[in-house]
Design brief:
The complex is a heterodimer.
Chain A (H helix, E strand, L loop, with lengths): L2 H12 L4 E2 L2 H4 L16 E3 L4 H14 L3 E4 L16 E4 L6 E5 L4 E4 L5 H8 L4 E2 L12 H7 L6 H4 L2 H4 E7 L5 E5 L11 H4 L8 E8 L1 E2 L3 E9 L2 H13 L6 E6 H11 L9 E9 L1 H17 L4 E5 L2 H12 L1 H6 L4 E4 L2 E2 L5 H15 L3 E6 L4 E8 L6 H18 L15 H7 L2 H14 L14 H7 L1 H12 L6
Parallel strand pairs in A: 2-4, 3-4
Antiparallel strand pairs in A: 1-2, 5-6, 6-10, 7-11, 8-9, 8-10, 12-14, 12-15, 13-14, 13-18, 16-19, 17-19, 18-19
Helix pairs in contact in A: 1-3, 9-11, 14-15, 15-16, 16-18, 16-19
Chain B lengths: L4 H15 L3 E4 L5 H4 L6 E4 L6 E5 L4 E5 L4 H9 L3 E2 L13 H7 L6 H4 L2 H4 E7 L5 E5 L11 H5 L8 E8 L1 E2 L3 E8 L2 H12 L5 E7 L2 E8 L1 H6 L7 E2 L3 H7 L4 H4 L5 E4 L10 E5 L4 E4 L8 E4 L12 H10 L17
Parallel strand pairs in B: 1-2
Antiparallel strand pairs in B: 3-4, 4-8, 5-9, 6-7, 6-8, 10-12, 10-13, 11-12, 11-15, 14-16, 14-17, 15-16
The chains are: A alpha+beta, B alpha+beta.
Chain lengths: 485, 335
Amino acid sequence: MSHQQALEELQALLGQDDLITDAAGKRPYETDGLAAIREVPWVVALPRTRDAVLGVLAICRRHRVPIVPRGAGTGLSGGARPMADGVLLSLARLKRILAIDVHNGIARVEPGVRNLAISEAVLPHGFFYAPDPSSQIACSIGGNVAENAGGVHCLKYGLTVHNVCGLVVATLDGQVHEFGGAGWDPLGLDLRAVTCGSEGLLGIVLEVVVRLTPLPPEKAVVLAAFSSLGDAGRAVAGIIRHGLIPAGLEMMDHLAIRAAEAFVHAGYPLDAEALLLCELDGTVGEVSADLARVEAVMREEGAFKLEVARDPQAQARLWLGRKAAFPAVGRLAPDYYCMDGTIPRGRLAEVLDEIARMSDEFGLKVANVFHAGDGNLHPLILYDANNPGELEKAERFGGRILSHCVAVGGAVSGEHGVGVEKLDQMCDQFSAAELAQFERLKAAFDPDGLLNPGKALPTLTRCVDVGGMHVHANSSARFTRLDRF
Amino acid sequence: MTSSPAQRVAEQVLAARASGTTLAIRGHASKRALLGERRADAVLDMRACSGVLSYRPDELVITVRAGTPLKELEAVLAERRQHIAPGIPLLEGQGTVGGAVAAGLSGPSRPWRGSLRDVVLGVEMVNGLGERLRFGGEVFKNVAGFDVARLVTGSEGAFGALLSVSLRVAPVPECTRCLVVEMPATPALTWMRRRAAEPHPFGGLCWLEGRLHCRLDGAAQAVADFTGEPGMVEEDPAFWTQLRDAALPFHAGWSGLWRCAVPPATPTDEQTVCIDWAGALRWRRGSINTVGESCPVGSSPLALGACDGLLSRLKAAFDPDHLFNPELMRADAPA
């Protein structure tokens, strides 16, 4: 590894404006959305063109310098945590919308384009880009691909992987690959899905072809208040059982409701133990018909208050509390830690009971917001980093929640990614053989292991240390003789 | 102690690896005519590895063994008024779930309901080392680990044999309406592209033999809200099942045709026999060389050229000895 030589080549390639080497300039890049974890990068590269990106990759490969790719830096799992001896490669300056192709129903964009900017640009044509993570005002489409970002409308419209039809990806060997394109699906191998959610470990996304969705002509939002989480959970199951797939279906618990109401005064009922927000969209007649069915299910399952918003202002007010839930909860304590696990919806009440029990055990409060339609739970653990040991306690608590998600048949991350945050819990979810398969898959894309090393995949040693692998060694031994199905 | 069907598959793979025997993974062999027949030293027959493992309609997920017949899957889901939204082709009237996922084919509703790959939530598979591995799971949102479940969808067994598959299911739409009108190919394509840009509950848009076929699937009110083209008349929904299952008259003599995946607005021409997916899937006499990808009926897209660089490393990452379906992803150019 020759950093001095690499530095000279990077300076020659990028010039002063596009390479940050001074301490003050690098400071803003020391963390991403997981602010508890910091590291000052060796240098920050901010190329403006595809060729410059490829140049950076070539230099890094030649000198064996690791690369940490970064979009807008809004990720919540530390996937863009810098390395003290690595290049932080920001794609933020590749931010052109290259084409809006109405005839094919797509937009071709560079990775640094903000998520919301795509929907804004295609709005005059009657389209939107469906995945809408709550950071959509700031997060970039390249980062969305890296994390397979979701949002509140995944239930009906899918995640990033369902809305990306083409990717141009550079691997470290200097090759530029096209996965998919402007059509629906390629024939043969489809490498788009494995790229989505690969957290910058496989390649650098140079261009994204996104699928555009026609704007629905009508929307309605229903707020329903329940006196127990169990009732609200049954209402969610009832809606699905009636054959309805709402655009969004969100749940908040008592603490989250109170925090949101105190913060933004959305008119949420403070006497509710659980609140559901259900968004319906489609043709005018379809929304009216679906609305009647949703209201009936909510009542049947014990909703004691129902509010329906059919005009955009009233809808925005109902959504306001949910969208402000994280900062609202943030006002209750000096710090909060946002978790991200998925569970089968039917296990919701039981999982929330277990979280409440752990909350007592750890002595830390927790508020819950939940993408109820698709089983994605976001417990927000309240703590005070000024109290010695409390951050570590919050992290242990979070880890226990995720392990519990796996135990009930869920996953350790629904949409935030593994990053550096959930490496230990990956040992709960995957066996040694599965983790080794991931490593071989990574090596196929990145034989030298220079792309975002240390993220997303735990080493086997780490798994042995945290004890997860011990459990797995037992269970796989057992499963060799048992029908696992 | 009797071993499970999945365990027996894993044992067969280990034995084959030890003896250097290549394996052709086979279910119902229903895609021979479309993708060609796989040949190897021995057949890895998946049919015994069959049955529903869990079905939770409220969670919108079903997990089945890979050898489960598609017809059985359809029947189980239909009891709860659910289905696999993209539609899965039953070629030659049959097929297994594992074969369907390995082929990665989606039905005519793909542009509006997602692809088969999109509804694959998780798999258990045996790789070329004989290891049983699980990827993904039974939940819709899951970004833990690389998305191997969707990587193997459409890989035709080149990375391993599927043992079980978890699929996202969807409610059967309340109402279906099928319309047809006489129209030449070019105006039909223009019509499809214009209407596909609008928010209608389409379940299919297809042009075949001078006729534009339009399918609507959705809430009764949404379907009723759709205004078609003057001259459009109702038709039997059976057309769409036959299109999905490649059972229309034109499919009978399709061995000279090419399957082409193109940007949907790509202009049509005299060689085009059928336009599906609102333009994105074409059946042609001859390949399309300008845009998109083409594969002749009777061949696998994974057997068309030599496999090098990234693709050959990927194959080696799962199946280093080229144990499975050895004609696919070959390092040397096929003869």
